Automatic annotation (TrEMBL):
Residues 19-238 form the ABC transporter domain. This is ABC transporter ATP-binding protein. GO terms for molecular function: ATP binding. Keywords: Amino-acid transport, ATP-binding, Nucleotide-binding, Transport. It comes from the Bacteria. It holds the Pfam family ABC_tran. Belongs to the ABC transporter superfamily.
Length: 238
């Protein structure tokens, strides 16, 4: 816990960040796609990582998840420098939803849910829409149903931290709203910390608590997700 001075000169306990980037430079081979990032994500909050195409959002997320090694700087998970690869971080309570859909097409919905670390019953409680589809091969689901399956499987394991890339890509607004609502509930009810990469600024801000803006591989701004954010972000890059 860190302490924060309030205007009334009392102190309140602020939760320690669950995820931190400190001076993080990341990329591919010699190419630094993002440089010198400082970011934090606390338990129970949704933080949107915004920015135009090619700004470095996915590279940042992959590096924070342990899929790419930092070129410089560090990633901290629960206050400790994180060096474990992605699969070990997932085993220790991190949820990761990459841009490409992570289902096994030939397995049924039920079998796909069974591959998760949480109970199938919890996944179905979160997304009852999946119940009538349980016996269907996951490859035959619609894009939105596949993304529900992915998110249900991840949330059922009660992750303490979730890194989510472009959940809404190509999906109908009503489906996106249901997916984002589930993330919001996980953050509010179970204290999960969520870092959400999203192209759609307004959608992301509808559920986020805070945002960071990446441009050309560097942080170009950050703030609370409030009524001024859209105008601020529009001025910056929309
Ligand atoms: N595997 C790779 N090898 C080399 N360069 C890459 C690789 N993946 C991405 N890049 C480059 O890194 C930069 C950042 O890409 P990244 O995918 O992180 O951006 P992004 O903000 O997520 O973009 P988008 O919103 O279009 O997905 C881009 O210039 C991209 O071309």
């Amino acid at each position: 816990m860190t302490t924060v001075a309030t205007p009334a000169d009392t102190t309140i306990a602020a939760p320690a960040p669950i995820l931190e980037a400190r001076g993080l430079t990341a990329g591919y081979g010699d190419l630094a796609a993002v440089r010198g990032l400082d970011m934090v994500v606390h338990p129970g909050e949704i933080v949107a990582l915004l920015g135009p195409n090619g700004a470095g959002k996915t590279t940042t997320l992959l590096t924070l998840a342990g899929s790419l090694k930092p070129l410089a700087g560090e990633v901290r998970h629960n206050g400790k420098v994180a060096t474990a690869p992605l699969y070990r971080r997932v085993r220790s309570g991190m949820g990761f939803i990459p841009e490409e859909r992570s289902i096994i097409s030939k397995l049924s919905v039920k079998e796909n849910l069974g591959l998760g670390r949480g109970p199938v019953s919890e996944a179905l409680r979160l997304f009852p829409q999946l119940q009538p589809l349980l016996r269907r091969p996951a490859g035959l689901l619609s894009g939105g149903e596949q993304q529900m399956l992915t998110l249900a499987r991840c949330l059922a394991s009660r992750p303490s931290l979730m890194l989510v890339d472009e959940l809404s890509l190509g999906l109908a607004p009503i489906v996106v709203a249901a997916l984002l609502r589930a993330l919001r509930e996980a953050a509010t009810e179970t204290g999960a910390a969520v870092l959400l990469v999203e192209q759609q600024v307004q959608r992301a801000l509808s559920v986020a608590d805070r945002w960071y803006l990446l441009q050309h591989g560097a942080l170009a701004g950050s703030g609370a997700a409030d009524e001024n954010s859209v105008a601020e972000l529009a001025a910056a890059y929309l």
